[in-house]
Amino acid sequence: MFSVKDWIDQKEWTNWSGNVVSKPSRSLLPLSTEHLSQIIKKVSENGQTLRVTGAGHSFSPVAMPDDIAVSLHNMRGLINVDQASGEVTLWAGTYLYEIGPMLKDYGLALQNMGDIQEQTIAGAVSTGTHGTGITLGSISNQVIAWGFVDGLGEYHEHKRADDELSNSLHLSLGLLGVLVQVTLQTVPLYSLKCVSTQSILPVALQDWSQMIRENRHLEWFYFPGSEKVQVKMMNMIPIIEQSKSSKVIESVKTQFVENGLFYLMSELCRKQPKRTALVSKISASSVPNGMKTGLSYEIFPTPRHVKFLESEYAIPLEHFEACMEEIHYTLLSHPFRVHFPIECRTASGEMGYLSPTGGVESAFLAFHMYKGMDEKPYFRWVQHLMTKYNGRPHFGKVNALTAERMLKLYPNLPKFLEQRDKYDPNDVFMTAYFKTLFTKVECKSLIM
To answer: DSSP character for 223?
Structure first.
C-alpha cells in the first residue's frame, strides 16, 4: 500500500517488480489541480521533466521519473455521479480497488476490469489496462471525458468525440498532460459467475471461437511444456455479493497456494532452472475445477504477490489459433526455463491512435517470468514471434519498441505527435525513455 512518508523520504523510485529503478530529484504530492499546475509550470521553467508514477505497476519504464516524480495519492475519490446516465467523474489518483465499493453505493459498476486492481485510474487509462471479453474494450474505452493539465500548466477538459485529441487521449501514456479527473461511462451494478475448468489444448482450440462469443468473459492459462489449459468463463448473473465463506476460502487459497506453495516452487525454479518443466506440469495438474459468484469487482481481481516480469501483445483475433499452435510446438521442449502460464484474453477493437488492438478484434497474450530468473531469451523469442503475427505490445509491459518500430505499428502516430507538440511544447513529459520512442524530428519529417 502507498505510504506518504515513504514517498516523501524516498531516495530511489522503483516499480512493483523492481526491474525499473530511478533517482528522482524530488517526489511531490499535489493537493489540487491548481497545485499541480504550479508544479508543472515550475518544472517547465527549469527545463526539467515530470512523471506521474501511479502505483508503479508497469513493467516497462513508462512511469519512471528522470527529474520530478509526482503521485496523485491526495487526489482521489468521486467528484460527481449521474445515476440516470451512469456517467461518473473520478479524481485520477483513485485506485481501481477503491472504485467498485464507491460505485456500488449508487447501483453502478465498471463495465469491465482486469485481474489486477492496484493501479490508479489515471495509470490504467493512460496505458490501456484491459480485462477480457470480445465485445468489451479496455478501461481507456470506458472514458467519455478527460480533465488534464498540459505541459504549460494549463487545465483542459475534453469530451470524447471522433477527433484527433480524443484519439490521442484514449491511450496517451501521460505525454499530453497529467490526467487529474476522468469521466467514465458505467453500467448498472451486476454480479458475475466465474467457472474454472481444465482442458487440453487441441480441445480448447477447437472450442475457442465459439466460447469467446458465448461467454461475456473468457480467459485461458496455458502451461508451457504441457497440453493443459485452465479455462475461466465469467458471465453476468442477478446481483449477489460474494459470501463470507467464499471470501475466506479465496483468502486462504491466495495465502497458501500463491503466497506459499507457488512462491516456494518459483524459488526452486530460480535456484534450479532445470526443475521448471516439472513445476509447470505440477501447476497444470493443479488447475482447479470450481465456481464462485459475487459482485463484479469482487470476482475480477486476482491477488498477485509472487513477483514476476511480464510481456504482453495484442494480435488480430484471426491469428490466435495459429499463434497458439506455434507457441505449443516451441515450448513442448521447454527451451526457456519458464513455469508461469501464458495468459490469453480477448478485446474488441478500439480506435485510439496508440491502441494495441489497431481497431480490430484482438487476442492478448501475456508472458511471465519469475523475478530473479533470466527473462531475456524468453522475451526475445516472444518479441520475434509477435512480429510474425502483427503483434502490438502493451506499453506497460516489457517490450523492445523503438522509434522505427513505432512508425510501422501505429500508422496514426504522426497525428498523435502533432497533439503532443501542441500540449507539451517544452517536453515536460518527454523522459529519456520516451525519447527513444518519440522524437520531434520524426514528428516533423512525417508531417511534411
So the answer is: P
Under 8 Å between Cβ of 212 and 320: no
Task: Please state, in angstroms and as integers, the Cα–Cα distance from residue 432 to each residue in 419, 429, 437, following that order.
Answer: 20, 10, 9
Q: Reduce the DSSP state of residue 95 to 3 states and report it.
A: strand
Q: What mean pLDDT do residues 306-333 have?
A: 97
The chain-wide mean pLDDT, for the chain, equals 94
DSSP single-letter state for residue 273: G
Extract the C-alpha cell encoding 392: 502490438
Helix axes 376-388, 320-331, angle to 10 degrees: 150
Give the right CATH number for 1-189+402-434 from 3.40.50.2300, 3.90.180.10, 3.30.465.10, 2.60.40.3410.
Answer: 3.30.465.10
CATH topology agreement for domains 1-189+402-434 and 191-393: no
301: left (phi over 0), alpha (psi -120 to 50) or beta: beta
Residue 448 has pLDDT above 50, yes or no: no
- Selection from 358, 371, 374 nearest residue 411 by Cα: 358
CATH number assigned to the domain covering 191-393? 3.30.70.2520
The pLDDT confidence band at residue 305, using thresholds 50, 70 and 90, is confident
Per-residue pLDDT of 26-84, as tens digits, reads 999 999 999 999 999 999 999 999 999 999 999 999 999 999 999 999 999 999 999 99
Residue 340 has phi, psi (to 5 degrees) of -75, 140
Burial of 271: CB neighbours in 10 Å, binned 0-12, 13-18, 19+: exposed
Helix/strand number for the chain, H first, E second: 16, 20
- pLDDT band at 3; cut points 50, 70, 90: confident
pTM comes to 0.95
Closest CA to 140 of 131, 152, 149, 151: 131
pLDDT beyond 90 at 252: no
- Between the two ends of the chain, the Cα-to-Cα distance in Å is 48
